[in-house]
């Protein structure tokens, strides 16, 4: 509104100035001076003609009529301007209303999406809770079953301790060593069976004749302080990692030389299978030799005669009476080995079996007794490396 007033005032001033610039007859002066604040000229007191007076009066009336028409024109223009401003304001207001309506729709849509998202989150949370409860129930059931299996295994371990772990050089278990039993109680077995490398004395086949009782020899023993210290350090945290000082010495002095055969590539595979407990030693039946199966590739295998198997040993490469064969892992390859090679492999397997028992916590003996048992197993590896082995091999 203030702007409209200023526009009307400016138009009025322009019109008045135009009128003041026009030539007038006589000495007529405009009613309102164009310049405010300036000193007015003195009135002209000279006597005028009556004819001049009529003419000046008509001019004055003409100027008044012009001024009135200009004022009307200004009012009309002002009215038009106000109408345009009103129309523009109404248009802007309409746009604002449309924008507000659009924003209201967007807000309603967002609120609806938020409600749907909240509902889906609650549903997902309930679903996760139900799944967690189901898994918890299943886990508790498995835990109960596992505890039952643990109790059963503990009972079996307790029974095995009396058979395996109590067998020491000073007090051997006669049930595990049939050669120590009396001739009347000797056990004879026929045929052959599959035995993993964890088996120790049960790998060999029983002889067809009873073995006389051999008295246990009395030996003088003295603990080596360095070896015993290394064993005690290993016993604190048992591991099968060959980098520890205890096993590193045994690998260097016993295991490595004992499994160092002529065929070096196969020797490395045999050592890896023994360490991984995947080596199988099987006796070969002598009575009737079966036909070689296509699924089993026999390396250094039988020569086909119905007699004692004389063939090349797969490890030493020498022609020997091979009464056993080995298989590495789950492969179908069989390797025939001589009694000497079998004795060396068996000695190493017995050593790894015992230290695995210690690592699993199955040996409940004094530290010194465990140390002497390991020394006995090392002695067996050394004797086998030098070529000494039992006739039962």
Automatic annotation (TrEMBL):
Record's GO cellular component terms: Golgi to plasma membrane transport vesicle
Residues forming coiled coils: 79-163
One Pfam family from the record: Sec2p
GO biological process, one term: exocytosis
Annotated GDP/GTP exchange factor Sec2 N-terminal domain residues: 76-161
Keywords recorded for this protein, A-Z: Coiled coil, Guanine-nucleotide releasing factor, Phosphoprotein, Protein transport, Transport
Biased amino acid composition, Low complexity: 197-211
Keyword Protein transport among UniProt keywords: yes
Regions of compositional bias (Polar residues) in chain numbering: 1-25, 56-70, 168-184
Assigned protein family: Belongs to the SEC2 family.
Name of the protein: RAB3A interacting protein like 1
